[in-house]
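Onboarding guide, step 5: your first structure request.
Type a short instruction followed by the sequence, for example:

Predict the 3D structure of this protein.
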Amino acid sequence: MADLRRLLNSQMSALIDGQYGCLDAAAETINARTGQSVSKGTLSKRLSGLHGWPVDDVIALEDASGRYPVTRLMARRLNPDAATARGSMLVHAGAISKEAGEAVNAILAAQQSQAGRDTAQAITEIDEAIEALRRARSALEGGA
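The system replies with C-alpha coordinates like these:
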Protein backbone atom coordinates (compact mmCIF):
# COMPACT_ATOMS: atom_id res chain seq x y z
CA MET A 1 0.00 0.00 0.00
CA ALA A 2 2.91 2.35 0.68
CA ASP A 3 4.05 1.93 -2.93
CA LEU A 4 0.58 2.81 -4.19
CA ARG A 5 0.53 5.92 -1.99
CA ARG A 6 3.97 6.93 -3.24
CA LEU A 7 2.86 6.41 -6.85
CA LEU A 8 -0.35 8.35 -6.26
CA ASN A 9 1.63 11.20 -4.68
CA SER A 10 4.01 11.30 -7.63
CA GLN A 11 1.07 11.38 -10.06
CA MET A 12 -0.56 14.20 -8.11
CA SER A 13 2.73 16.10 -7.84
CA ALA A 14 3.24 15.87 -11.61
CA LEU A 15 -0.36 16.95 -12.21
CA ILE A 16 -0.06 19.95 -9.90
CA ASP A 17 3.37 21.01 -11.20
CA GLY A 18 2.44 20.55 -14.84
CA GLN A 19 -1.04 22.02 -14.82
CA TYR A 20 -1.24 24.44 -11.91
CA GLY A 21 2.38 25.42 -11.27
CA CYS A 22 1.93 25.89 -7.55
CA LEU A 23 0.03 24.56 -4.57
CA ASP A 24 -1.93 27.80 -4.14
CA ALA A 25 -3.51 27.47 -7.59
CA ALA A 26 -4.26 23.78 -7.01
CA ALA A 27 -5.87 24.56 -3.65
CA GLU A 28 -8.03 27.27 -5.18
CA THR A 29 -9.11 24.89 -7.93
CA ILE A 30 -10.17 22.30 -5.36
CA ASN A 31 -11.96 24.95 -3.30
CA ALA A 32 -13.85 26.25 -6.33
CA ARG A 33 -14.88 22.80 -7.55
CA THR A 34 -15.75 21.16 -4.23
CA GLY A 35 -16.81 24.04 -2.04
CA GLN A 36 -14.39 22.84 0.61
CA SER A 37 -11.59 24.78 2.25
CA VAL A 38 -8.25 23.26 1.26
CA SER A 39 -5.01 25.14 1.83
CA LYS A 40 -1.53 25.04 0.36
CA GLY A 41 -0.32 23.47 3.62
CA THR A 42 -2.84 20.66 3.38
CA LEU A 43 -1.73 19.85 -0.17
CA SER A 44 1.89 19.91 0.94
CA LYS A 45 1.13 17.37 3.67
CA ARG A 46 -0.69 15.16 1.17
CA LEU A 47 2.22 15.28 -1.27
CA SER A 48 4.68 14.41 1.49
CA GLY A 49 2.63 11.36 2.42
CA LEU A 50 1.49 12.63 5.82
CA HIS A 51 -2.14 12.70 4.64
CA GLY A 52 -3.96 10.76 1.97
CA TRP A 53 -5.76 12.19 -1.04
CA PRO A 54 -9.57 12.41 -0.82
CA VAL A 55 -11.24 11.19 -3.98
CA ASP A 56 -13.16 14.43 -4.47
CA ASP A 57 -9.92 16.47 -4.44
CA VAL A 58 -8.30 14.14 -6.97
CA ILE A 59 -11.37 14.34 -9.21
CA ALA A 60 -11.49 18.13 -8.90
CA LEU A 61 -7.88 18.53 -10.05
CA GLU A 62 -8.14 15.92 -12.80
CA ASP A 63 -11.40 17.29 -14.19
CA ALA A 64 -10.10 20.86 -14.15
CA SER A 65 -6.93 19.88 -15.98
CA GLY A 66 -8.47 17.39 -18.40
CA ARG A 67 -5.75 14.90 -17.42
CA TYR A 68 -6.57 11.70 -15.51
CA PRO A 69 -3.37 10.02 -14.25
CA VAL A 70 -4.83 8.78 -10.95
CA THR A 71 -8.04 7.56 -12.56
CA ARG A 72 -5.97 5.57 -15.08
CA LEU A 73 -3.82 4.22 -12.27
CA MET A 74 -6.90 3.03 -10.40
CA ALA A 75 -8.48 1.57 -13.55
CA ARG A 76 -5.37 -0.53 -14.20
CA ARG A 77 -5.95 -2.21 -10.83
CA LEU A 78 -9.19 -3.68 -12.22
CA ASN A 79 -7.46 -5.32 -15.16
CA PRO A 80 -3.91 -6.34 -14.26
CA ASP A 81 -3.70 -8.40 -17.47
CA ALA A 82 -3.90 -5.18 -19.48
CA ALA A 83 -0.86 -3.82 -17.68
CA THR A 84 1.02 -7.03 -18.44
CA ALA A 85 -0.04 -6.85 -22.08
CA ARG A 86 1.43 -3.35 -22.34
CA GLY A 87 4.70 -4.76 -21.15
CA SER A 88 6.78 -4.28 -18.11
CA MET A 89 8.52 -0.98 -17.56
CA LEU A 90 11.73 -2.98 -17.37
CA VAL A 91 11.15 -4.11 -20.93
CA HIS A 92 10.69 -0.50 -22.00
CA ALA A 93 13.79 0.58 -20.08
CA GLY A 94 15.78 -2.19 -21.75
CA ALA A 95 14.57 -1.13 -25.19
CA ILE A 96 15.47 2.49 -24.47
CA SER A 97 18.93 1.46 -23.31
CA LYS A 98 19.51 -0.73 -26.36
CA GLU A 99 18.28 1.84 -28.87
CA ALA A 100 20.11 4.73 -27.22
CA GLY A 101 23.34 2.72 -27.18
CA GLU A 102 22.95 1.91 -30.86
CA ALA A 103 22.25 5.57 -31.61
CA VAL A 104 25.36 6.72 -29.75
CA ASN A 105 27.46 4.12 -31.56
CA ALA A 106 26.07 5.18 -34.94
CA ILE A 107 26.59 8.90 -34.18
CA LEU A 108 30.22 8.28 -33.27
CA ALA A 109 30.74 6.18 -36.41
CA ALA A 110 29.19 8.90 -38.57
CA GLN A 111 31.36 11.55 -36.93
CA GLN A 112 34.53 9.57 -37.62
CA SER A 113 33.76 8.46 -41.17
CA GLN A 114 31.97 11.53 -42.55
CA ALA A 115 30.25 9.12 -44.98
CA GLY A 116 26.69 9.81 -46.04
CA ARG A 117 25.51 6.27 -45.37
CA ASP A 118 26.87 6.42 -41.81
CA THR A 119 25.04 9.70 -41.24
CA ALA A 120 21.81 8.14 -42.56
CA GLN A 121 22.33 5.13 -40.28
CA ALA A 122 22.83 7.44 -37.28
CA ILE A 123 19.59 9.26 -38.08
CA THR A 124 17.75 5.94 -38.31
CA GLU A 125 19.15 4.83 -34.95
CA ILE A 126 18.20 8.16 -33.35
CA ASP A 127 14.63 7.77 -34.64
CA GLU A 128 14.45 4.24 -33.20
CA ALA A 129 15.63 5.53 -29.81
CA ILE A 130 13.03 8.29 -29.90
CA GLU A 131 10.31 5.75 -30.70
CA ALA A 132 11.40 3.55 -27.76
CA LEU A 133 11.09 6.58 -25.49
CA ARG A 134 7.65 7.41 -26.87
CA ARG A 135 6.42 3.85 -26.27
CA ALA A 136 7.66 3.96 -22.68
CA ARG A 137 6.02 7.32 -22.07
CA SER A 138 2.75 6.11 -23.53
CA ALA A 139 2.83 3.02 -21.30
CA LEU A 140 3.51 5.14 -18.22
CA GLU A 141 0.61 7.42 -19.10
CA GLY A 142 -1.64 4.40 -19.53
CA GLY A 143 -2.23 4.81 -23.23
CA ALA A 144 -0.43 1.81 -24.63
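Each response can be followed by summary notes, for example: The domain at 2-78 is CATH 1.10.260 (434 Repressor (Amino-terminal Domain)).
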